Amino acid sequence: MKFSTLVTNLALLVATVVLLNIEIVAAAPAPSGSHRASHIPEHYEIVPLLVTGSINGIAINHTGTIEEVFAQLDAEENSFKLSDLTAWDNPDLQTRDTAYMTDVNCIPVNGQNWNRAKAGAINTGIQYLRRGYMSCWVNAHSCARVSCSWDSGIYFCNNNNYNLGHPCAQIADYAAAIYDRCKYQKNLISDKEVGGQAWDDGNWNVPVHKDRC
Fold first, then answer.
1. 25 within some domain
2. Are 166 and 136 a contacting pair, CB within 8 Å?
3. Is residue 75 in some structural domain?
4. Is residue 29 pLDDT above 50, yes or no?
């Protein structure tokens, strides 16, 4: 084999290896610290939220985020219309049932790689959760996503050895406490952001952070 041919073959081999490495890197999943990842406390499982109760006289026994539950109700044969929500009286955003709340930690939260959520989306989720007479349920040692829109999530995490339910309005109140205490705005023209974790002495908590939805 001529020396020039050998050099050419080696160059082609090196180029092939380089291209293969580039393809492998490009196909690799995003690191766990990516802002698109959904983070919950270690050893927890994300489970669907169960919502029970009633709203505007309509019985509720559905699973999913509050946005998904309302969309299901809107698709069913009843008097509920998602478009009517804006016409109803909007609950105020002031915190209410926080008598048993022990702590509110703003992002950065120790041990969690969370990023802040859009304040406006969290505000809307809080208002949805305060509608009607609804209870939110989560399994033992699990987190359920209560609300998620515009990549901004509210969670309900249960540290107990049994399934747990609380008024969805109370979950909203804990999220509102984070909203009140943990707002952040980088500059005058940037959107307001919010994020943190509120704890209850009943061994459960409400995280608010950037999510994928």
1. no
2. yes
3. yes
4. no
